């Protein structure tokens, strides 16, 4: 079933119905099939896409650029030093100018209020490529990967382990609550999501039949899990907190023992990337205990992290086509 999403923003998956989210995922699976077959429908011919990046990115930038070009659109990268947003020109004025020139706007940055203000004034679809609060395009790729693996999303036992109050934990909980999953956040109680986010997700869960569990006990949280998911222990801009986070989160490192604790030989591992899983980065050399996942798991047979990374491109293509074409 097709849904008319033309003109819609994507700021958080909380704004989309379960059927709309599944439609975007299924569309992405079809776009992946078409691309692998060498078929490019060019649904976005003559469209122009503005890509605003306050925060640098590998996957988000490349996924938007390749997806846009595949579909016939022109993407324009606007880094933090390329435009005057919030410095010499207000967010609202920037949105109005870009909305007159571009057909869609992606924003990746810090404050969620910025992408909300862009959406309020642009007059064209605005997509959240990441803010401090939410990362909806990543969750679409995550759930696409899960559906490719298991064939369904409802009832999937999904354990997010580590820093439970960041944008990934918030967004995964929203998506899982919408789609009827058995979702667990496994984290120290001091790093649970904000109460308001929890309450909102419990309401979504009541409507979908999902369950949401927050626990600081690893064995309880990962039991029977189909998916183990983690993220870095200190997000961009939190580097000064790394030593404290290591001390707090070391018991939550994803390793072979944790994967065994699931009791599920078919459990897969996911990560939004980038990841500290070996000593080949500057920060890992400075802080050897920063590894939120061991390389044994990250590079092992349960890992689907690079399928997941590729799926950013297909899901972003689905979002752009659905809201623009």
TrEMBL record:
GO molecular function: amino acid binding; ornithine carbamoyltransferase activity
CC terms in the record's Gene Ontology section: cytoplasm
Any Pfam family the entry gives: OTCace
Any single biological process term in GO: citrulline biosynthetic process
Residues covered by the Aspartate/ornithine carbamoyltransferase carbamoyl-P binding domain: 8-148
Its EC number(s): 2.1.3.3
Residues reported in the UniProt entry to bind L-ornithine: 167, 231, 235-236
Name of the molecule in the record: Ornithine carbamoyltransferase
């Amino acid at each position: 079933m097709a849904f008319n999403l033309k003109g819609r923003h994507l700021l958080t998956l909380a704004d989309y119905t379960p059927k709309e989210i599944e439609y975007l995922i299924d569309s992405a699976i079809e776009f992946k099939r078409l691309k692998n077959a060498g078929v490019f429908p060019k649904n976005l011919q003559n469209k122009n896409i503005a890509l605003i990046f306050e925060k640098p990115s590998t996957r988000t930038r490349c996924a938007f650029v390749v997806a846009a070009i595949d579909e016939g659109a022109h993407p324009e990268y606007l880094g933090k030093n390329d435009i005057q947003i919030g410095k010499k020109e207000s967010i609202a004025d920037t949105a109005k100018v870009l909305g007159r020139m571009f057909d869609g706007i992606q924003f990746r940055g810090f404050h969620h209020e910025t992408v909300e203000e862009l959406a309020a004034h642009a007059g064209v679809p605005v997509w959240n490529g990441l803010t401090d609060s939410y990362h909806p395009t990543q969750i679409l790729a995550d759930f696409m990967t899960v559906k490719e693996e298991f064939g369904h999303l409802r009832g999937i036992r999904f354990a997010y382990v580590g820093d439970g109050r960041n944008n990934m934990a918030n967004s995964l909980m929203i998506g899982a609550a919408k789609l009827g999953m058995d979702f667990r956040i496994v984290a120290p109680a001091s790093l649970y999501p904000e109460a308001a986010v929890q309450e909102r997700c419990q309401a979504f869960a009541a409507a979908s039949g999902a369950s949401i569990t927050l626990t600081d006990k690893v064995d309880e949280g990962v039991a029977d899990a189909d998916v183990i998911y983690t993220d870095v222990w200190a997000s961009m801009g939190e580097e000064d907190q790394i030593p404290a986070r290591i001390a707090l989160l070391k018991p939550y490192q994803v390793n072979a023992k944790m994967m065994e604790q699931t009791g599920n030989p078919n459990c897969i591992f996911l990560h939004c990337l980038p990841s500290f899983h070996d000593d080949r980065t500057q920060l890992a050399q400075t802080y050897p205990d920063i590894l939120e996942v061991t390389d044994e798991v990250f590079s092992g047979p349960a890992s689907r992290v690079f399928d997941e990374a590729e799926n950013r491109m297909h899901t972003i293509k689905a979002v752009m086509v659905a809201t623009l074409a």
